[in-house]
Amino acid sequence: MAYLFGLATVASVGIATVIFDFTRTPFRNVPRPSEKRRLKIFDLSADTYDSRENFFEWITRIKYQRKKVFSKARGRVLEIGAGTGRNLEVLNAAPGVTSLTCIDTSGPMCEVLASKIDEVKPPFPVQVIQGDAADLPFEDKTFDSVISSFAVCAVEHPERTVEETRRVLKEGGRFMLLERGLPANSFVRWLMKKYDIYPNPNVAWELGIFEDLDVGQVLTQGKFHLVGSSPSKILTLHALSARRGCSVGDRKLSSGSRLGLPELTDKNARVVFRYTPEKGDGAAE
User: Fold this and answer.
1) pLDDT at residue number 25
2) Collapsing DSSP states into helix, strand and coil, what is residue 147?
3) What distance in Å separates the CA atoms of residue 189 and residue 243, rounded to the nearest whole number?
4) 220-254 pLDDT, tens per residue?
5) 161 with 241: CB under 8 angstroms?
6) Is 79 exposed, middle or buried (0-12, 13-18, 19+ CB in 10 A)?
7) Strand order through the sheet with 270-276
């Protein structure tokens, strides 16, 4: 039985490697695209994004990783770079979530997410905001949990985004991430770069994301403490949980979990959609 399991594992890895190599964006040593050009990629791909990602996520077990990482979200939850809402299914089933605020720079992606929320009808209030994760329109210490799936690697200023995330998290709050980035092992990192495997600058032009993110470094520089997980030594997919430091160890959130949706502090951020379970439907703003 162990022998058969081993063969199945090797076969699965082989198939995944072939698919990865076949679908991989061709390597090109190009400069970074402008922010306007890069953000347009997300606007234009909003309607087809889910169909493109579904098969790839099944092969790479990213869907399993989403459940493993984000089912632990609790209280007031903020999702940065929420996109088309690929984490909505997991959060909908998470018993500790009391409200969900989603923010993304792409208007078309926000519209797709809004339609999903209206269809799923979660048991907690949800709002969708078109805004900038590097300039979050919320007061300090507003959220109990912040989640990010392939969002920090898709922003122009990841350090600023992490700083803003820490600002809006309560003391002891958790920042849960699923990100693409450089392997933590320096030799593996050197080897992949030498043979033009990873990072690939052309990916930013094709998919809108940057592959040169050092996930662990940007979190520790942002004064987060990694808990229960760390960046992968050899892989480019990182599943992490980080805690916002507080003065008395890893204590409970001092102010408790506030219910309901937070108000915006920035008039430049636009509320695209709000949903309340009491009414049973949502409303576009």
Assistant:
1) 81
2) strand
3) 26
4) 999 999 997 778 877 899 999 999 976 444 344 44
5) no
6) buried
7) 224-226, 237-244, 169-180, 143-149, 75-80, 97-104, 126-130, 270-276, 281-284
Q: What is the Cα–Cα distance from 124 to 135, expressed in whole angstroms?
A: 25
Angle (CA) 270 273 276, round 5°: 135
Residue 103: strand pairing partners: 80, 129
Give dist(CA 189, CA 168) in Å, integer: 33
* Separation CA 99–CA 124 (nearest Å): 5
Residue with tokens 């636009």: 270
According to DSSP, residue 272 is labeled E
Can you tell me the mean pLDDT for 126-130? 98
Angstrom CA distances, 110 to 2, 102, 128, 263, stand at 46, 9, 7, 18
Domain 30-284, CATH class in plain words: alpha beta
Q: Which two tokens stand for residue 201?
A: 């600058």
For 30-74, write each residue's pLDDT tens digit.
999 999 999 999 999 999 999 989 988 888 889 899 999 999 999
Q: pTM of this prediction?
A: 0.87
Can you tell me which residue has the tokens 């990482």? 69
